[in-house]
Design brief:
40% of the residues lie in helices and 12% in strands. With 652 residues, it is α/β, with parallel strands linked by helices.
Length: 652
């Protein structure tokens, strides 16, 4: 009797040697999480397996493997003169990519820029300073990528990994304001560092918050008075001030400033108060010496006057002439030294005025850059729409990719803040006529800035469009500035998630328990918060087996990748989803998508004959190739049936 199977098996498949009744039942799924058509993959411009493939070949390989959505990942550093990135692909290559995607009915969803370009604030991690040159360089790279995406895709996004500037974890603002984060995260051994930046130069100043200052101030922040007794004894009283004191001092200043005119207001952040106390001490020292030097100059002037009087009586007295020359030289020295001290004191006063918290400064610079990039995406999209045969089906957008825990842009609160502020800045750029002396956008022709009235009409905003209403500008900003959510980057917060001690037993919880709490208490609720904010244009689905940065296919690690994707879909997300699990390509080409499809429960089909749907293990590990050797011998390698053990147990 002929036996028909619903699946094809080879001699290396275990099922080949089993009867139909012995073949394992297919895994039962309630339904697929996502269809294959919605689960794409990232395509690196250079082959990560080490084989020499160009961007066209890597794209074609992904298409032949069945991917319907692609995101091109630029891997060549943006400082590299040759080798890759949008500037390396000419008209013919771009047309080829476009035609390949069109012929295969595949969607190229956008471009990810190399991690060497890791912020648009222009922060230089080598010099620890904000550089306008670096900001412009990064922005130019983004604009090139926008044009490249317009040429090869039917619309889509350009994303930049968001390491906008360094910031600590233990004392980040969201530790106090975000309910999902309070008391849950800690960086072992982290030094609490205070950061300030000079908004004129972009140079930063850092200090350790653990250092104690000894200041001539009372604990109510009033100066300690030095009376006759203290003067007679030569005694100077000082009090110790720690970081908690500076935080209280900043709160005190906030209350006092409500009653003071602008020019008399004191700093309102503890970082500014800390630095100002040091700068004030330096300034007072300089001013004290300036006074001393001026008094010496006055004394020398009296000597000069006396000598001149004596010379009137004895004009030829050589000793008097020599004394006069000496006194005039000393007078000039005292005056010049006093002037130098006055100059340094004034510079310190200006530094006090221009030192601002790095958080505010950095976020504003990043928002400005993303707003400018968003306007470029708007402009290119509009240009395509005006063509006789438009190529793009969806608008171009640009935005940050949620980053790593050690940098601003990685926490959900920061990610949401950055996208929203960038959108607000783009709206202002499109609807504001002028830029005030501090670089802020405004429609006021004349206004008071830093206590002075200024004429803003002298500095016009080049992005202003009189034909765009504020409500239209808001809609445009939301359409052309969207972030990218990377599930693996989100998982890296696990390394800072505190373990809990059981109060009954005093024993630290197991790692499995800690991971489960991380998923339930932070990861998934934070994903829901981001999804509700409506700031994301694309998802990179990537997993890891630990808190370290990894690129496993979704479902091959410990994080709830597909649960996160489902939350986005339930909240109305309509962007692209791609697997970034390229780290397992060395175990089998195509695992980046095959394991994604398998773990998502996407159906393969019902087989040639009627019956239950084909199992993914039969397709992905049978026809498409296993990632391991068979666990039995077969064919010519199998021992002869003429030889048997005394127990008659087969050797297999």
């Amino acid at each position: 009797m002929a036996e028909f199977r619903t699946l094809y098996y080879g001699p290396m498949d275990r099922e080949y040697h089993q009867a139909v009744s012995e073949t394992p039942e297919p895994e039962k799924l309630e339904g697929s999480i996502f269809p294959i058509s919605q689960l794409g993959e990232t395509v690196p411009e250079t082959d990560p397996t080490g084989r020499f493939k160009n961007i066209i070949q890597t794209t074609q390989a992904a298409i032949r493997g069945g991917a319907g959505t692609l995101q091109i990942v630029m891997t060549v550093p943006h400082e590299s003169a040759i080798g890759g990135r949008p500037k390396s692909y000419g008209k013919e290559v771009r047309e080829t990519l476009r035609e390949v995607a069109k012929a295969s009915e595949v969607n190229i969803a956008g471009v990810e820029l190399p991690t060497s370009l890791n912020n648009l604030a222009g922060f230089d991690y080598q010099n620890l300073a904000f550089s306008e040159e670096k900001r412009t360089q990064g922005l130019d790279e983004v604009k090139d990528a926008i044009k490249f995406t317009a040429d090869v895709a039917q619309g889509g996004g350009v994303d930049v990994v968001s390491w906008e500037f360094p910031r600590g974890i233990n004392e980040a603002p969201w530790q106090k304001t975000d309910p999902l984060s309070k008391g849950k995260f800690f960086q072992e051994g982290e030094q609490p560092i205070g950061w300030l930046v000079d908004d004129r130069t972009g140079r930063t100043t850092q200090f350790r918050k653990t250092e104690i200052q000894h200041l001539p101030f009372n604990k109510d922040f009033t100066p300690i008075k030095v009376g006759p007794k203290e003067l007679a004894e030569g005694k100077v009283e000082l009090n110790e001030f720690g970081w908690d004191d500076f935080q209280k001092w900043a709160e005190h200043n906030k209350e006092m400033n409500k009653k003071l005119p602008f020019e008399q207001r004191e700093p309102e952040t503890p970082e500014q108060v800390y630095i100002q106390t040091q700068l004030n001490a330096q300034k007072l020292n300089l001013e004290g010496w300036k006074t001393t030097y001026m008094q010496n100059a006055q004394h020398e002037q009296k000597n000069i006057d006396d000598i001149n009087e004596a010379l009137k009586k004895d004009p030829e007295n050589a000793a008097l002439k020599q004394a006069l020359a000496y006194s005039e030289k000393k007078y000039d020295d005292w005056v010049h030294t006093a002037q130098s001290n006055a100059q340094q004191a004034e510079e310190i006063e200006q530094r006090k005025k221009h030192f601002i918290p790095m958080w505010d400064y950095g976020v504003q610079r990043s928002a400005k850059s993303y707003a400018e990039a968003g306007i470029e995406a708007l402009r290119v999209t509009q240009q395509d729409a005006q063509k006789e045969h438009p190529m793009m089906k969806t608008p171009l957008h640009v935005g940050p990719e949620i980053g790593w825990p050690g940098y601003f842009g990685s926490h959900p609160e920061e990610f949401i803040e950055l996208v929203k502020k960038s959108r607000d800045e783009m709206k202002k750029m499109l609807t504001s006529k002028y830029v005030d002396p501090n670089g802020k956008l405004t429609n006021k022709e004349y206004e008071q800035v830093d206590g002075k009235y200024v004429d803003n009409t002298k500095n016009k905003n080049n992005y202003f469009d009189p034909n765009i209403r504020p409500d239209q500008a808001k809609e445009m900003a939301e359409k052309h500035i969207k972030g990218l959510f990377d599930t693996g980057h989100m998982g890296m917060w696990l390394q800072h998630f505190k373990g809990q001690v059981d109060p009954n037993t005093g024993i630290m919880e197991t790692e499995e328990r800690r991971i489960k709490r991380f998923k339930d208490e932070f990861y998934l609720p934070a994903v829901e918060k981001i999804a509700k904010a409506n700031i994301v244009g694309g998802l990179q689905l990537v997993d890891s087996m630990s808190a370290a940065h990894g690129h496993l296919p979704p479902g091959e690690g410990i994080f709830p990748v597909f649960e996160a994707a489902k939350i986005f879909k339930e909240k109305g997300f309509s962007g692209f989803m791609v697997s970034e699990g390229h780290e397992e390509e060395k175990f089998g080409e195509g695992r980046i998508r095959m394991k994604t499809w398998q773990n998502a429960g996407a159906p393969v089909g019902a087989g040639y004959f009627s019956g239950a749907p084909m199992q993914w293990r039969n397709a992905a590990q049978g026809y498409f190739g296993r990632s391991y050797s068979p666990m039995f011998m077969f064919g010519g390698y199998s021992p002869s049936n003429d030889f048997k053990l005394w127990s008659e147990v087969p050797l297999e």
